[in-house]
Automatic annotation (TrEMBL):
Keywords: Cell membrane, G-protein coupled receptor, Membrane, Olfaction, Receptor, Sensory transduction, Transducer, Transmembrane, Transmembrane helix. This is Olfactory receptor. It comes from Enhydra lutris kenyoni (northern sea otter). The chain crosses the membrane at residues 25-48, 60-81, 101-120, 140-164, 196-225, 237-259, 271-291. The keyword Transmembrane applies. GO terms for molecular function: G protein-coupled receptor activity; olfactory receptor activity. Pfam families: 7tm_4 (PF13853). Putative odorant or sperm cell receptor.
């Protein structure tokens, strides 16, 4: 039972990877390499899409927005985590924690919505190809991208304000960044409204988009199976393969992290799950779209060939 008599907390201290003290240098090297690869991969994808006119289509427009969002998503979390691994300050001010949580949630929710929009793009392209250029015109694409970003940060703002209006009785965050559950654990008394709000935002950010994508892919698969030629079916599946791979891993990791019952005995396990969706998942996007997507590979070859000319 937390006491009502408490000193007002003005800063938090991350416990981080203190339970893995003997492996912190190894973790630093691994996470740094992953972070550099993530930044490089996403920057390359955005650059190639911007330069190569063959990729000036709605699908790659949304991919460039997703890569940009993933880049900033990593930037919010990983640099501070790396500094903690090499023994630099593990403390963060109340305002700094609120800011980190706001941007982390904003980009995370935006990424979930963007994947749903990309699923809708694939649905229109395969199930209604004759009207694709009309339905997915540039005005619609811009409105969709702006709307998902605004919605993501609006939900994030609501969540952050609700949390940081509380009083905190403990300053030790048993995590490596300001995520919702670890910060709520420090509150002297968290009203049930906070739990309800967290559940609603989780349903809106994870369950609703993933359900929407699931329905669109049922319709997409049903349409593909009606294609007479095997080559046509293969080509149609190929246009969805990269997106579907990212969707499965992204929503799979996020769902495990947010819907798995939390336990005092599984803090290390929760930490490793968090590493998956904050460090590993952002790398997935450039890897999948570079290694599995022929159009991006061809664009990279054209770009490299152009640079090699005198």
């Amino acid at each position: 039972m937390k006491t009502a008599n408490h000193t007002e907390v003005r800063e938090f201290v991350f416990q981080g990877f203190s339970n893995f003290h003997e492996h912190q240098l190894t973790l630093f090297v691994v996470f740094l390499i992953v972070y550099i690869l993530t930044l490089a991969g996403n920057v390359i994808i955005v650059t190639v899409i911007h330069i190569d006119h063959h990729l000036h289509t709605p699908m790659y427009f949304f991919l460039s927005v997703l890569s940009t969002s993933e880049t900033f998503y990593s930037l919010v979390i990983i640099p501070r985590m790396l500094s903690g691994l090499v023994g630099l300050s593990q403390s963060i001010s109340l305002v700094g924690c609120g800011t980190q949580l706001f941007f982390f949630l904003g980009f995370a929710i935006t990424n979930c919505f963007l994947l749903a929009v990309m699923g809708f793009d694939r649905y229109v392209a395969i199930c209604n190809p004759l009207r694709y250029s009309v339905v997915m015109n540039w005005r619609v694409c811009t409105i969709l991208a702006s709307s998902v970003c605004a919605s993501g940060f609006l939900l994030s703002l609501i969540q952050a304000v609700a949390i940081f209006r509380l009083s905190f009785c403990n300053s030790l965050i048993e995590h490596f960044f300001c995520d919702v559950p670890p910060v709520l654990d420090l509150a002297c008394a968290a009203p049930i409204l906070n739990d309800i709000l967290t559940l609603i935002i989780t349903l809106l950010a994870l369950t609703a988009p993933s359900t929407f994508i699931f329905i669109t892919y049922i319709l997409i698969i049903a349409t593909i199976l009606k294609i007479a030629s095997a080559e046509g079916r293969k080509k149609a599946f190929a246009t969805c393969a990269s997106h579907l791979t990212v969707v499965i891993v992204h929503y799979g990791c996020a769902s495990i992290a947010h819907f798995k019952p939390r336990s005092e005995d599984n803090r290390d396990q929760d930490l490793l799950i968090s590493v998956t969706y904050t460090v590993i998942t952002p790398l997935l996007n450039p890897v999948v779209y570079s290694l599995r997507n022929k159009e991006v590979q061809d664009a990279l070859r054209r770009l490299m060939g152009r640079k090699s000319l005198p």
